[in-house]
Amino acid sequence: MTSALQGWGVWLALSAACIGTYLCRAAGVKLSGHISQDSEIFRWLSTVTYAMVAALTVRMILMPLGLLATVPLLLRVLMCVLSLAVMMSRPQRRLVPALLTGTLLMLAYGVWRTSP
Amino acid sequence: MTLDRLANRRDAFWRGIREALGAPVLVLFAGMVGFGAMGRTHGFDAWMTGLTSLLMFALPGQVVMLEMFISGSSLLAIGFAVTLTSTRFVTMVVTLFPQLHRRDRNPLLYLWVHMLAMTAWAVSMREFPSMAPKHRLSYFIGLALPCWLISPIGTVFGYFVAGWVPTAVTLGLVFINPLFFLLTFTDVKPWANRIAIGLGCLLGPAFYLLDADSSLLLTGLVAGTLAYFIDRRWLRSPPMEVHA
Hints:
Chain A is mainly alpha-helical. Chain A is built from 4 helices and no strands. Chain A has 3 domains: 1-34; 38-66; 71-116, no CATH class. In chain A, helix 3 packs antiparallel against helix 4. In chain B, 72% of the residues lie in helices and 0% in strands. Chains A and B meet through helix 1, helix 2, helix 3 and helix 4 of A and helix 2, helix 3, helix 4, helix 5 and helix 6 of B.
């Protein structure tokens, strides 16, 4: 493949992806004018969205692409559990401490793994 | 529920900014740094990688696009797959924007909606009930604008540091996104949505193994509908069931 052709293809793929993504956002605006917040369809769409977001999250943790896939599954799950425990250790949210817990544990694992 | 502490729209806008400048911007920045590093290692152009974050601003879709392009998928397949991962925006917008004041629900929303991502959505869903409808759009813009603007900056930053940052650091960065999403679930109050999250976690991987491209949409529809009917049938209203 010549670099010119590859460059051209990349930009076309980017355009298609951007347009597709924006159309989804715009469709939401279009539809939102016709749906009341307290309606049954709102409740249903809310559950559909949460289910979709949950599926995406679990996929990113259990079946990640790329670098995260090099970390053993058990460790990924364990780090998530520990972070969740920090998050829920107080009635008020402890988002930043919980995020730091998971991230630093992952960093520590990375350091441990690369050290001889 | 908290009373509305906001004096006016400007106040709401700045409160949104302040909220954004904590975890949300940090999380997005980290996620985008990870994406930029990925673009670099996959041999993409710095401009293209940065513009993806500015113009698409949907991390899962961006990752899908990179991966599919590398594996040589057709342009049509890439466009379709990315659009499928972005269908979550339809429902996000439909659940969030009806909560805005009637006056704010005008064509300008087609502009603001581009700045919506999961982070701003989750925070807005949490905070909107505690503020007056007329302040919600300003709050949302204050929250979403920094999130959007930081994304291409983080991406280009990640692109250029990818060469010299140790793998351990990159590992920590790519873990932030899924972790943040997971943690926000603990804040969800309505039982219907909690059940939807539980079912989504269970069915998501199963559907993913069946058909990766459509699995998000399928899981959302099946698990969401199931959760809705479970809530409607057994959990809603009659008080006797609460103490049963």
